[in-house]
């Protein structure tokens, strides 16, 4: 039991006793203690059970606390001062109470100590609540440490950030202002984080991923989520959030991403081969004409166009296939989409599938990782094609929604997904395909989430499926 002791002035102690009914008084010369009835009720005992002397009272104090109580009382008498302390009291029924005892010395006409007067309070419930709170906070701290997570609070009025324990381990320092914290953000991610932070000033919670460069120069990936709180005047009072080190998780996701990418590349291989064979056949024909003496400037232009077509297809294919570092930059999402459509057009034609692109509004650039966005597009098209074994139309609609969000919808005329299965879409290893792994949609969902957006699904059996992707625009 942690014993609390503090010295206080006799006047303060005397003031404290006024109006308090749980009183006791010890006449040192007679070694007799008198107590109020309410105190006896509090301690759940009679005068006979607790005894009339100081030593008999000490017998009721927990064995681990009694020596310290004896020392405090002796020191108070010697110094003619006051005390307040906490200790455990054992009732005659064996019940353990935690009590707060506060007392002061009583001096005679010659200034000598003739007794002590005090008040006892039962604080058992309060201390149990404190202990429960401590346990909860301790468990939370342990959980935060295991999850490599810290919490923070930011007050715009003072530009101060308050961190929970663990920020030094996470970052190597404890930045106190927004400017100090931003100095640790990866330069390529800084504008993106600033934009999201400014957008949150309108009250929208946010969750984003970005990179930090620690004090020692090492780079980590973090996941941040936060909410904004306003005062009665509608002004921002504070932002509260968490910051989690997800570096290891990102490495695992990258391995999954590359695995799924190779799977997609394998599926595209046949279509790409056919796409290259067509211009090669055309080139072979023109070379034979030239070899036969038939020449025309138009032939050379057509041949160059066919070679450009081959170069484009091979480049796109290699960009998808080869491992690449994650690099977020500003790209036009429609141009990326048109590139993927161009790559898949021949394969779609072979399956009697038409791809229609409807751009509702002019789209600005978005801050994205282009190869990951392409991978999402390809996955959406491949799923739509697989859902239409007899052919059909894939309609892609691009629009700009309120709050400056890009909306891309992929609508097919496939077999659709039953309602009971629709809820599980995106779960690892759950697939509506006979030989599917379920990782494709899960990875696409992670990619879009990494870009601050989300994917949703609507489907009706024997009618088709619509996949909606929303991403914030620059």
Automatic annotation (TrEMBL):
The keyword Phosphoprotein applies. This is histidine kinase. Residues 271-474 form the Histidine kinase domain. Pfam families: HATPase_c (PF02518), HisKA (PF00512), PAS_3 (PF08447). It catalyses: ATP + protein L-histidine = ADP + protein N-phospho-L-histidine. SUPFAM superfamilies: ATPase domain of HSP90 chaperone/DNA topoisomerase II/histidine kinase (SSF55874), Homodimeric domain of signal transducing histidine kinase (SSF47384), PYP-like sensor domain (PAS domain) (SSF55785). It is an enzyme of class 2 (transferase). Signal peptide: none annotated. The keyword Transferase applies. One of its GO terms (molecular function) is ATP binding. Its EC number is 2.7.13.3. It comes from Lottiidibacillus patelloidae. Residues 83-135, 206-258 form the PAC domain. Keywords: ATP-binding, Kinase, Nucleotide-binding, Phosphoprotein, Transferase, Two-component regulatory system.
